Amino acid sequence: MTDAALSAVGGRPKRAPAPARRSLMLLYLVSIVAGLGVWHVIASGYSSFVLAPPTGVLNRLVELTMSGELPRALGGALQHMALGFLIACAIAIPIGMLMGRVRLINDLLDPIVNLVYAVPSVAWAPFIMIWFGLFFEARVALVVMMCTFDMIIVTSAGAQNADRKLLNVGRSFGASGWQRFRYILLPESLPFLFTALRIGAVRAVNAMITAELFLAAVNLGQIMKQAAVRLDSAAVLGVLAVLCMIGLALQEILLLIERRICVWRQGASS
């Protein structure tokens, strides 16, 4: 069966018209402004040592940025976060796809995955200290540990939910295993794969700061610990705001890529 024939069988849908972004951006803006307003009202009832207002946090972030401390710390933090996330993807996606499509592999690995997933990821920090030390390798290992099992479970669910009728149609037309994977299984699993990537990205941000606080205090974790000793809540909240923005940016980037690739989902929902 030719690639062109398989594409025809799949009924490649036309690209759905892009949804209006203006109303979405307006909702984002309203949500952020409302959140900042609530924060300001609550902070006005406390000392700045206890809860700094948004303006104080912004001023502190500007100071940390102008001094170069925050950019250096952020650059170092993103290095082990990105490396750990890529390693987690390289492990979780193939294993998840195999678990979803091969019953024997699923029966062998599913109990192990669920047992490890049930253990809080931070509980592995002492073992990671023993195995990898306290520095870069240990931080990467903790990111991998905190991302992999979430991604395996979601990826496996996507592979299991692939439409069996479409796979049977491809098989009846003489499609090879690679063709069935490329034209049927992979497109069917893409929404789940992107969900796994979004979950993994947020977990990677979580693991990044956890590693920098629980292991050797470096980068953003060092800024937070030093600020806590000085009762500098503005700096602590500033780092938390940066982490929130990183997580939000990664989510939006992956959602944008998903909308560009999974065009048939937009057509189905319209």
How would the blueprint of this fold be written?
Blueprint (H helix, E strand, L loop, with lengths): L2 H8 L10 H23 L10 H13 L2 H33 L1 H16 L6 H8 L3 H25 L3 H9 L4 H38 L4 H11 L3 H29 L1 H7 L1
Helix pairs in contact: 3-11, 4-5, 4-7, 4-9, 4-10, 5-7, 6-7, 7-9, 8-9, 9-10, 9-11, 10-11
What's the gist of this structure?
The chain is an all-alpha fold and 270 residues long. The protein has helices at residues 3-10, 21-43, 54-66, 69-101, 103-118, 125-132, 136-160, 164-172, 177-214, 219-229, 233-261, 263-269. Residues 1-18 have low confidence and may be disordered.
Account of the 3D structure:
The chain is built from twelve helices and no strands. The protein has a single domain, classed as MetI-like fold. With 270 residues, it is mainly α. The radius of gyration is 23 Å and the shape is globular. The longest helix is centred in the last third of the chain and has 38 residues. This is ABC transporter permease.
Characteristics:
mainly alpha, 0% strand, MetI-like fold, 270 residues, 12 helices, disordered N terminus
How far is the first residue's CA from the last residue's CA? 32 Å
What string, H for helix and E for strand, traces the elements in order?
HHHHHHHHHHHH
Average residue-wise pLDDT: 81
The amount of beta strand, in percent, is under 5%
CATH topology: MetI-like fold
Subcellular location: Cell membrane
Membrane topology: Multi-pass membrane protein
Transmembrane segments: 24-42, 77-100, 112-134, 140-159, 190-215, 235-257
GO cellular component, one term: plasma membrane
